[in-house]
Design brief:
- It is built from 16 helices and no strands.
- By secondary structure, it is an all-alpha fold.
- The chain has two domains: about 10-170, Orthogonal Bundle (Tetracycline Repressor, domain 2); about 170-300, Four Helix Bundle (Hemerythrin (Met), subunit A), CATH 1.20.120.
- Helix 2 crosses helix 9 (about 145-165).
Length: about 300
């Protein structure tokens, strides 16, 4: 039997894992490696990418910054989360604000140390990334449109650093990036609709709060059209192997999303829409391997 102290410690570990969204970080790490193998550096040997120390360091630095970003975001949104996510908020509060801030600064310090192993430019990049996340959480998050765009950019930044590392400037890379950017932007706006009650109560000037739900739905419908168009461009104009299965499935899900969007008017409805987008994003990560299903076997 575990003692009360041990149980409390385990709860704190779960609380911290919840705060830093550990499951999201694991997905990002997997996505960075799969994107490196299949999209950013398809001409390199599988093992050459997998055992690249510099890539590992960049992934570790990205993970540390992402985790610290979730912490500072949680710090600034603690009051809003009490309204929008009371159960999760109670779990997150098992770790004190002082402890969260200490871990936040430690993770950022580690990220800079990791980056220094690669190059001074990597240090500058991650220092700017850390500042951008803090400034977004502190100020930009409460601004309509700007907050959504910056949030989407910060979300795809871990892939941008890998893109710069491999210097792959082929058009297919940009199309994949556009597809991901649109999905993330849609998810952010859908979350704003889902959390409109807390945002309104605490004067967060999000798009739904400032312009209303109807305008938000028009913007999301336009984003759906652009994302579907991007999917078809990737399928018909680029070599993506069997990943076309994923894009066709995504188109069907996006059409369903668009139809449900205009019938949604409650938090639970928007939560379902949010989960559709999250499912597409996570499935997309694992579907990268479909670009060449035999790639790993041929390189072993």
């Amino acid at each position: 039997m575990l003692s009360r102290t041990q149980k409390h410690f385990i709860l704190k570990v779960f609380s911290l894992f919840s705060v830093v969204r550990g499951y999201n970080i694991l997905i990002v790490v997997l996505a960075q490696y799969l994107a490196s193998i299949y999209i950013f550096a398809p001409d390199l040997h599988f093992k050459e990418v997998l055992f690249d120390i510099n890539l590992l360091i960049l992934v570790l630095a990205s993970s540390a910054v992402i985790a610290s970003g979730y912490i500072i975001n949680n710090f600034y949104d603690s009051e809003k989360d009490l309204i929008n996510r009371p159960n999760k908020s109670m779990l997150d509060r098992l770790v004190s604000q002082n402890t969260k801030l200490s871990i936040y600064f430690t993770l950022n310090f580690l990220a800079v140390i990791f980056a220094s192993y690669v190059s001074f430019r990597a240090v500058i990049f991650f220092a700017l990334y850390i500042f951008a996340i803090w400034y977004y959480s502190h100020k930009l998050k409460k601004m309509p449109i700007t907050g959504n765009l910056v949030s989407a950019i910060l979300t795809v930044t871990p892939f941008f650093v890998i893109f710069i590392y491999y210097r792959n400037f082929e058009l297919v890379v940009f199309m994949h990036a556009l597809f991901l950017f649109m999905l993330v932007s849609m998810r952010e706006l859908t979350k704003d609709l889902e959390n409109i009650k807390g945002d309104f109560a605490l004067n967060y000037r999000t798009i739904p709060v400032v312009y209303g739900e109807k305008i938000s739905k028009y913007l999301l419908t336009g984003a759906v059209a652009v994302t579907i168009a991007t999917s078809f461009i990737l399928v018909f104009y680029f070599e993506i192997g069997r990943m076309y299965y994923f894009f066709y499935t995504s188109v069907i899900l996006l059409i369903i999303y668009g139809l449900l969007l205009w019938k949604s008017n409650r938090k639970t409805h928007y939560l379902w829409l949010h989960n559709i987008l999250k499912f597409i994003i996570v499935t997309g990560v694992f579907s990268i391997i479909l670009i060449d299903i035999n790639l790993v076997l041929n390189r072993l």
